[in-house]
Design a protein that fits this description.
It is built from 16 helices and 11 strands. By secondary structure, the chain is α+β, with helices and mostly antiparallel strands. The strands form 3 sheets. Strands 5-4-8-7-6-9 form a 6-stranded mixed sheet. The chain starts with 8 loop residues before the first helix and ends with a strand.
């Protein structure tokens, strides 16, 4: 499977079946032979440029919708799972993994689910304290919901359109979001927006009896408007949200409810930052986070997160990754529409510049980075405080990071002045130490799972072992 060639047989088959055409009819429609189409659908031959053009002309298919992003995510996750010692006797090649993902994605996801259950069971057995009856191989509610958003590309079409319609009705972002949303809640739903008591720690509280939405008086304006948009979701979008969560078929009620909360948040973001207006502005301002935030009256985190959701068919933005990391290195939010994928287990690479952001509060930290597979990225990170009170109140600190493959770097103002063509400008980073192939990394926390270690009695380097 040569680099650069597009093997998307399953996607082509889905397009044909959606049009309710036989292979012969479909092949005739796009001007190729039935045998050639059969080979394409079985990933025996790549899709040519002329076939892509025919698909676009005859079926209105957007080239970007026939992307490898979903396959990239699955291949990355399978690679990490198969690095587990339990698979030591089986080492499928990258080509074999791509074939599995492209031809049998449901099987690939089933394998990941099995491995996840195995890991959780093993971890619980390792810490067994006599309560063996409590063992459960099920993923946590948050893990299950995280995977749901991951596999839908962090884009929910129906909610995105609904949020955009509401933004248009309220003339956002041209009008003040706080005033517009408060007026809308009152006129449409008879709901008053009031402040909570100064000593109440709650961000948002809705009293259905008095039809009052209470908001913390110390919230930033961007958070206040987001919470009001969230309330609109609970009043107007519950049927749609329930249907989406139901289709996801979660294992537990907890996961179902966590997902619904995430979907309400999604609607709120789609309202405050309406898709087409946001996409146009991001392009015009070359993805300058501060300027975009000012234009929409949003926070830097809201803007960065929204950039990672620009996956609307036929109107996609630059594929970026987004993550939020706490001081301990835990990734508390994550999504990637780019080739960079985040580890499902363990911490993030210590060489990634997101960790440096804590050392320079308020500054934008730039990094040119290269992963072990040779892919190069522009990474942008900054530190944020999430508190909403005065002196003595908790002030959680996070760092957020967004980035793109270097081929898109010129679309970002943050690439200005960087030597994108210099090999030495790129710092080596990985996904996670446990699967990283680099043998000479001085920041390595743990050895890679499938490598043999060599320990010298009479020699000690930075690491206490060598990786064979």
């Amino acid at each position: 499977m040569s680099a650069g060639k597009l093997y998307v047989g399953r996607r082509i088959r889905e397009i044909r079946e959606a049009a309710k055409l036989t292979q012969a009819s479909f092949a005739e429609r796009i001007g190729i032979s039935t045998s050639y189409l059969n080979q394409i659908e079985n990933n025996q031959r790549p899709v040519s440029a002329s076939v892509l053009v025919s698909l676009a002309e005859r079926f209105g298919i957007d080239f970007s919708s026939i992307s490898m992003n979903d396959s990239d995510r699955l291949v990355s996750m399978l690679t990490e799972a198969l690095a587990d010692p339990v698979f030591a006797a089986q080492s499928p090649s990258a080509q074999e993994l791509k074939l599995i993902v492209q031809n049998a994605p449901v099987f690939a996801q089933a394998l990941l689910s099995c491995h996840q259950a195995y890991r959780r069971n093993s971890e619980q057995l390792a810490s067994l304290d006599g309560h063996i009856h409590n063992l459960s191989p099920e993923p946590t509610a948050y893990e299950e919901v995280r995977d749901f958003f991951h596999f839908v590309g962090n884009y929910i079409h129906d909610l995105d359109l609904a949020g955009e319609r509401l933004a248009k009705k309220l003339d956002l972002p041209n009008s003040d979001a706080n005033a517009a949303l408060a007026k809308y809640l009152e006129s449409k739903h008879g709901l008053q927006v009031r402040r909570t008591a100064s000593d109440e720690p709650t961000l948002r509280r809705f009293d259905a009896n008095s039809r009052t939405l209470y908001l913390n008086p110390y919230l930033p304006a961007a958070t206040r408007s987001f919470q009001m948009a969230f309330q609109v979701a609970t009043l107007e979008q519950e049927a749609r949200i329930e249907a989406i969560a139901k289709r996801a078929d979660f294992r537990t009620i907890d996961a179902h409810e966590v997902c619904k909360a995430g979907l309400r948040n999604y609607f709120a973001g789609a309202t405050i930052l309406p898709y087409q207006s946001f996409l146009t502005t991001a392009k015009q301002l070359r993805h300058d986070l501060a300027l975009i935030a000012t234009r929409f009256g949003a926070s830097l985190e809201q803007v960065a997160h929204r950039l990672s959701t620009l996956q609307r068919p036929g109107l996609k933005g630059v594929p970026v990754f987004f993550a939020r990391v706490d001081r301990a290195g835990n990734i508390t939010k994550r999504h990637s529409a780019a080739k960079l994928q985040f580890a499902r287990y363990g911490a993030a690479c210590p060489l990634w510049n997101v960790h440096q952001a804590f050392e320079a509060p308020g500054r934008i930290i730039r990094q040119l980075a290269q992963t072990p597979d040779g892919v190069r990225f522009l990474c942008i990170s900054t530190e944020l405080a999430k508190g909403h009170g005065g002196f003595g109140t908790p002030q959680p600190h996070y760092a957020i990071s967004i980035g793109c493959e270097v081929s898109y770097a010129q679309d970002f103002v943050y690439a200005d002045g960087l030597d994108l063509g210099s090999k030495t400008a790129y710092e080596p980073i990985g996904i996670s130490c446990r699967i990283c192939e680099r043998v000479d990394c001085p920041q390595r926390a743990v050895p890679p799972l499938k490598s043999k270690l060599i320990v010298h009695r009479d020699r000690r380097d930075i690491l206490p072992y060598q990786i064979s």
